[in-house]
Amino acid sequence: MSAWLPAAPCTPGACVRPTAPATTVALPRAVLRLAAVVAVVTAGVALLPLGRWVPAAAVRGWCRAVVRAAGVRVRVTGGPVPDGGVLVVANHISWLDVPLLAALRPARMLAKAEVRRWPVAGVLAARGGTLFLERDRLRALPATVARVAAALREGAAVVAFPEGSTWCGRERGEFRRAVFQAALDAGVPVQPVRIRYGLVGGAATAVAAFVGDDTLVASLWRVVGVRGLVAEVGVRGVVDAGECGDRRSLTETAQRALG
Predict the structure, then answer these.
(1) How many Cα atoms sit within 13 Å of 137 on the Cβ side?
(2) What is the DSSP string of 53-116?
(3) Helices 216-224 and 27-47 sit at what angle, rounded to 10 degrees?
(4) Which residues contact 20 (CB under 8 A, 6 or more apart)?
(5) What does the alpha-carbon distance between residue 75 and residue 12 come to, in Å, rounded to a whole number?
């Protein structure tokens, strides 16, 4: 593994504390939520052959349905995400981040190449136009940035998580600069989005975190088993890439926007 590869110190054992009995749902309800998530995802897979003929509103609705089937309430502030080419950047905590952001506006995701090998999710990602990044091959980075820039020039929204790894939410990583070059090359704005997970009442929680050696199944089971999980999505002000001048300034401006 390359020394430059982004990594977070967060692990399930250190960051994801056991859920108190008062904030857990009964086993049958958790199972029903899990079944609902599987059903919604299966419906999405069935619609994949229709591809570009599926209306954008239906895609956003499907993404919201995935999150709500898991029992997660969504609170969106700010926005909307502008039309046309835009680089959407956010802090990264959970697999839930992807449908949350896609519900704002259908977008192409920038994801690590390993996602392509995930069961079901990998197929959905590949057919949904995800741009894959080989994180352990530094030489492949310029070509990936060029593909992102091309998608932005074509008017697409591209979602990236510049921290390069998931964090528990209590701590966050520094944004890496490479992907911001694509916004500069394409001449498009950057849309910062802040994601936070909490319980009803406002207390922050790491129960939705998908960190370290965690598995997707374990993370999904934690999410469907918790009561009152709220995903807060804060759409910040758009950053004009051209006014920042270079990718270092653009990166720092976007990260400051998240608070």
Answers:
(1) 12
(2) GS-HHHHHHHHHHHHHHTT-EEEEEE-PPPSSSEEEEE----TTHHHHHHHHS--EEEEEGGGG
(3) 120
(4) none
(5) 25
> Which residue has tokens 């995935």?
66
Using alpha carbons, select from 89, 96, 102, 247 the residue that is nearest to residue 182: 247
Residue found by looking up tokens 């530094």 in the block? 138
27-31, 179-183, 198-202, 243-247: least confident range: 198-202
- Reported as a single tens digit per residue, the pLDDT across 106-156 is 888 888 777 777 766 666 777 777 888 776 677 778 888 999 999 999 999
The Cα 130–Cα 132 span in angstroms is 6
The candidate with the shortest Cα–Cα distance to 201, out of 175, 229, 224, is 229
Neighbours of 56 (CB within 10 A): 9
How long is the chain? 259
Cα 229 from Cα 220, distance rounded (Å): 13
**Who's near 202: CB < 8 A, 6+ residues apart?**
none
Helices and strands (DSSP H and E) totals, the chain: 10, 7
What pTM was estimated for this model as a whole? Answer: 0.90
Strands 190-199 and 229-235: antiparallel
- Mapped onto helix, strand or coil, the DSSP state of residue 193 is strand
- What does DSSP say about strands 229-235 and 73-78: parallel, antiparallel, or unpaired? parallel
Question: 171 Cβ partners below 8 Å, 6+ apart?
Answer: 8, 9, 10
